Amino acid sequence: MRLLQKACKKIKPAHTLLYTLLTFYCKGPRDVLSGGLLHIELRREASLQRIIIRRTTQHKKSMKKYLCLLLCLLCAVSCAACGKKDVPAPRLWCVSPGSISAENEIKQLIRHYDSNVYVSFVPEEELDSRLNEAVKRGDSPDVFMLHADAIPDLVEDKKLADLTDRLRVSRVKSDELSDASRRACAYQGKNWAAPLFADVYMLATNRALVSVPPETALKLKETAGALDEKGISAFEKLSPEKQALLFEAVLGEYGGKMLDSRKTELEFVSDAGKAALGDCAEFISKSGEKDDMGDGKAAFSVMTINERREYTDKFPDAEIELAPLFGLKRLKTVAVAVSRDSRDQKRAFGVAEYLQTITEKLAALYKRYPAGKEITPLNDADKDAAVVLSQARPAPDLCGYVSLMKTYLPAAIDKAGKDVNAGDCLSEAAENASDNIWKGKRE
Q: N or C: which end of the chain has fewer CB within 10 A?
């Protein structure tokens, strides 16, 4: 400012309005300048700033030009000051905790940090679809919870802010988090989200219909056949994602791999592995309706620990036991991320970091396991599931994984259930997914 002031002194006439404004901001509470055109008195009285302008007898017409210039400069300064206030408060999308009271407590926690944050709650089963729609419209929230499996696709679409440097100086250190949860939020060597909650997919069994959960895919096939003779469905209606998880678990037991590293091919190592897809298709083709297991009309489902807890609340008389999904220990991580398009990145990250610092409180309200290193069962029913959770790993580090799980593999299973060759179905699924899969790798 002082350099500009010195430069203005060399301009003729000496008493330009720019020099006057600079003098006003650099010197004492009262300045008076008078020259051939104007007599200007500048005053500062407490918080009030006054400019008193009196014209001289010379150049009356020229005075109007200087007054207009003064008003324009004052308006520009005011607009610049107001521009910062025009940045809207961050919008935050949270997974719905399932009750109004919990939502109100979460809002209070967040507003304690920043009272202007606009909080919205989204049902977890709608989170992926609604987030994708918002991203396509260019209207994604500034901060949002998401499933870590969706991170690679959002990174490829350039929709997430890189949090690597910010997380290095975060109040929550990486060594306080479970390795699996932390890796689930990393992609191409960078951190794109901060993990909040961890869960694991498991095989759910209604003990009223099946006394001992099947430990192998072959045992599941035998049990499903016996139930079919009694007119009982083996599985209740499963989402496409859970259908694909069941297929992957069965396939893995037979030595197959869903993806072979960087290629987009589904591979098998035995004829028995090829037959596994047909078995899965048969189970699913005879599945019942949603919640049939709670009504005693289906024996099995694929659930997370949290889903089983909600299921128990809904069907208190149903005895639901969780068991490993034939060796598949797939982690389901809920994380918080920041939109790359957020207009105030620093403020948005502050909200995300605050959510991570109160994960323990949030976990209690959501009745979930925080993504920390220590996993302690919340009750006796969760003891075995908590052990599996501590051993679980993230989904494959592939871009296009969500599309593969929710679209291509379920379509392959459906075709295999209609007596189409299993190998042809898998080849078609891989070909359809080839444009999306493997554009990068997590760390």
A: N
